[in-house]
Amino acid sequence: MASFAIGVDLGGTNLRVAAVDNRGVIMEKITTGTEVARPRDQVLDEMCNAISDLAAKFSDANHLAGIGVGIPGIIDMHTGMLHESPNLPGWQDYPVRNEMERRLGTTVILENDANAAALGEKWLGAGSDSDDLCMLTLGTGVGGGLVLGGKIWHGMTGMAGELGHITVDPNGVECGCGNRGCLEQYASATAIKRMAMEAIANGEAPELAYAMNKNPEFSAKLVYELADQGDQPAQQIFRKVGQALGVVLASLVNTFNLRIYVIGGGVSSAWKAFAPSMLEEVRKRSFVYVATTPTDVPAKPRSSGWTTVITHALLGSDAGLIGAARLPMVANGVRLQEEELRQV
Ligand SMILES: [Zn+2]
């Protein structure tokens, strides 16, 4: 009997639930909107109903390995509590894991969404030929995840890998986390929009001003489209994004000396606009990077040598969903190995 798991990716704008088989193929995916203003219990009900529906549909012919849930914010892995989540305001200090387990009558593995995305990219994406991987996800905010020796690095309580809140500028823009000048304030979609508004307010960006007046849904994507068409002020914004990412990546490379650093999330589709300044910054600031023959092409088999690779994610918006489904598979694998060891 083949096995499958259910993965959940709960974001500020979308709730996605999928049945994923043990090779990583998505068998079925359910997507619904979850505006942050909606009551928490309603979102929880919808999430648990979608999980139950998929579990019932595929359990006759397949073995259900478990349920993994990726959720934005700071999670205490010991208690299953969500402590802080800027994109889910009504969920602060809420026992998400207990509530889901009570509704579903089974165990649930809760994980930070960027950690889940890192695990997904490690399994089937840019890091599939490597044991270790460091990932930055550039979306509404900036998330981070570390996979070391094939497992998510949790730290003491599960809050490790908050790479979006590493300081880039000590006197910089205030961040929702309480600090100033965090990476998130220079490399998220929110930051790109803010930097564009600042350039418009300073009278430095006539094309951006025109685009904003014409389009009420002015977004980071629009800024990228202008950069792609050669607009200098828009290109300058993405150079700043790249520099901020480069500053943080240089420290990460010096700290960890891993093979693969992956940039994912919606903003990563603007790769060609920010990658040159990002890689230039890493080269300037990390002697470990310079010493390990860097390349920015996607990961090659290990036989190509020990090089540091900084690349974009390969699974797109499914990384978090696939990684969430992978959580129970990894947990079961560890459990099976432990049982085997006990029998020896
Ligand atoms: Zn911060």
Q: Could you tell me how far the N terminus lies from the C terminus, measured between alpha carbons in angstroms?
A: 27 Å
Give a short account of the largest sheet. 5 strands, mixed
Structural class from helices and strands?
alpha/beta
Radius of gyration: 20 Å
Bound ligand species: zinc ion
Q: How much of the sequence is in beta strands?
A: 15-25%
Which range best describes the helical content: under 10%, 10-25%, 25-40%, 40-55%, 55-70% or over 70%? Answer: 40-55%
Number of strands: 12
Q: Which geometry do the CA atoms define?
A: globular
Pattern of helices and strands = EEEHEEEHEHEEEHHHHHEHHEH
pLDDT averaged residue by residue: 91
Q: Give the spatial strand order of the biggest sheet.
A: 3-2-1-4-7
The unreliable regions are none
How many distinct helices? 11
The quaternary structure here is single chain
